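Friendly challenge for the regulars: who can give me the structure tokens for this chain first? No prize, just bragging rights.
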Amino acid sequence: MFNNLTVLSGVKHFKCIKNIYKCQAFFASLHCIPHSANHCMVTVFTLHMMRSIPNAGRYPEYSIEFDEAINRTARDLFSPNPEVSGGLPDLPPEPGWGIRINDGWLQTASYQKSELKA
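First reply, four minutes later:
Bragging rights claimed.
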């Protein structure tokens, strides 16, 4: 089990993939199931990563959040929502995440700005 991919972004994402291959070399029978605890973008990122590694587990972690409002908000964030077809996530073959951020969600979202003070 690895940490979620929003934590392991950029160069750390490469390190995550590198570690997955190292683990496979020493523990060929173990499967990798990345942590993806909710229905937001991390699920999309995780499904893409799982399709790209040789030792992906059979099932992704789908959600630990039981608050329906949180999950509904996440589902409204983008479309299409990932579907499973024939036991595999139905992801497009072309480059990109295979989803589009919904304009309606962006228009109603709350925004915050963080600044680093010198």
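Helices lie at 11-26, 41-52, 68-77, 103-108. The mean pLDDT is 75. Your move, everyone else.
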